[in-house]
Amino acid sequence: MAGLDERARAGLTALVAVGIPVAAGIAAGMRGNGDGPVFQAGAILGACAATLLATRRGLWWLVPAQPMVVVPSAVLGMLLSEPSGTNRTKMGTDAVSALHHAFVITLVTVGAVLVVALLKAAVGRGGEPRSAVPAPQGAVAEGARRAGAHRG
Fold it and tell me: What is the pTM of this model?
């Protein structure tokens, strides 16, 4: 992304990776279905958007971050969707159900991160700036030596 230094881009990537699933979990919890389609779509959208924003060097943390983002977001959504007078047994059963759904959606988000990263690598250079003008064939970059050249 033009105009952002590496630290700002990393911060924006982390904000998107965490913020979208958490917001989706809150929205789903307010609608009464804490781990339903709203949360699932938000978790996948957050994973894909963060992968698109990340630099090639920053992609390494997105796969292991998915369980740490998705599971708490799903449980938060489940807690928000529970009525205030719910007994602990029902809440425990619903928490197990939310964790089951969070496991499945975590696998989907990990797959989404991997697919988007592979597509990003196939289309471009993984988000790193590239030269717009290709180097002529046989040209040597400034400061580089040709193969077989010796120091004199």
Answer: 0.72
